[in-house]
Design goal:
Helices cover 44% and strands 17% of the residues. It is built from twelve helices and nine strands. It has a seven-stranded mixed beta sheet, with helices on both faces. A two-stranded antiparallel sheet has the order 7-8. The protein binds glycine (GLY). Glycine binds next to helix 8.
Length: 351
């Protein structure tokens, strides 16, 4: 269920060895309601998949790279320009959730319009140079704003636009990121920015982990699924024909910047996939959140801004707690894989 929208490469799941730890024992009535609600969302995902729901907002243009040349080095204003601070204050920053990992603790910002306002992005891209990596569906929608924001803050920016989709979550495509970084002579002080859904976030995170033995990166998730799950917690990877996410690293970002305005352009099928991930937290860990979901499902499906933001915040809080307790999935974190096994099996079955 949970991974239906993420494509069709799967054979082995990235799970830990330990059994899941369920944190509470729900009543049988609650279990029935949870199963019903989950089934509805799963059915939506599966039906969309089976019907070949077309989610493309732009034609597939193959691998391409924008920002044809590597711009000359400029000085970077370390401080955020006052105009941006003012703009940031005007934006609707609804909440911040910290992922508590000692000296690697980082914030998840959740708000409407954060990408355009830019102050928070610049706060965590402290390098002179940045490489923004996106795909050919998200790029036409949000790449220009992201690049402009960084350039306005004095950051020299290069870009890579990858083909969209799980089928491209491969070592070969990841090499395009590394080759762009090398061609542009980016050194270890640069920052990678992942602008897109789960595939982009996972690949950019892994590229950041291995480029020159590790550079900083910022997650800017643009799908609901990435906002509430994959962009948080530092799991990075590419697929291999013998297994999904089999080549990767645990590597945490500097920050996760969630601009809920990007959800307005999200296809329905992707929204359903993200809602399934949200339900997961209710099922495995947070009964009160599950009750809240039952009362607010209509608002979620209608993309009501306040409802979606609250669901993202509570999901991120749940995920942050699990990651802080078990970053490398020795036990508890395996509970977050709930549904992925079914999803991968369905993907494999439906192609
Ligand atoms: N997506 C499951 C995890 O991050 O552990």
């Amino acid at each position: 269920m949970l991974a239906v929208s993420r494509g069709s490469v799967s054979a082995v799941e990235d799970r830990g060895d330990s059994p899941p730890h369920f944190c509470e024992r729900p009543s049988s009535a609650m279990v029935q309601r949870r199963v019903l609600l989950t089934s509805v969302v799963a059915s939506t995902c599966i039906l969309n998949k089976a019907a070949g729901f077309v989610v493309a907002a732009a034609p597939n243009r193959g691998v391409q790279s924008r920002g044809a040349s590597c711009a000359a080095t400029r000085s970077h204003a370390a401080a955020i320009p006052m105009s941006m601070v003012a703009s940031m204050e005007k934006s609707k920053l609804l909440s911040t959730v910290d992922v508590d990992l000692g000296d690697r603790t980082y914030p998840i910002y959740i708000g409407e319009g954060l990408l355009k306002d830019g102050g928070l992005l610049l706060k965590h891209v402290t390098s002179k140079r940045a490489l923004v990596i996106t795909n050919d569906r998200v790029g036409p929608l949000y790449l220009d704003d992201t690049v402009q924001t960084l350039r306005d803050g004095g950051v020299e920016v290069d870009t890579v636009v990858l083909p969209d989709g799980e089928a491209h979550k491969t070592m070969d495509v990841l090499m395009l990121i590394l080759e762009k970084a090398l061609t542009c002579r980016l050194d270890r002080s640069c920052t990678f920015v992942a602008l897109g859904g789960g595939v982009i976030g996972d690949m950019v995170g892994f590229a950041a982990a291995i480029y020159q033995r590790g550079v900083k990166f910022v997650q800017v998730p643009t799908t609901l699924m990435a906002m509430v799950d994959s962009a948080v917690g530092g799991k990075t990877a590419v697929n291999h024909p013998l297994g999904k996410n089999m080549i990767g690293a645990f590597y945490q970002p500097q920050a996760v910047l969630i601009d809920t305005a990007t959800l307005r352009t999200l296809p329905d099928r992707e929204l359903a996939s993200g809602i399934a991930e949200i339900i997961k937290y209710g099922l495995i860990k947070d009964a009160a959140f599950f009750e809240w979901q039952e009362q607010h499902m209509a608002g979620l499906l209608e993309r009501d801004a306040a409802t979606v933001s609250e669901a993202v915040r509570r999901s991120c809080e749940n995920k942050a707690l699990v990651v802080a307790a078990d970053e490398k999935e020795a036990g508890l974190r395996a509970t977050l894989n709930l549904g992925h096994t079914f999803g991968h099996a369905i993907e494999t079955g439906l192609g």
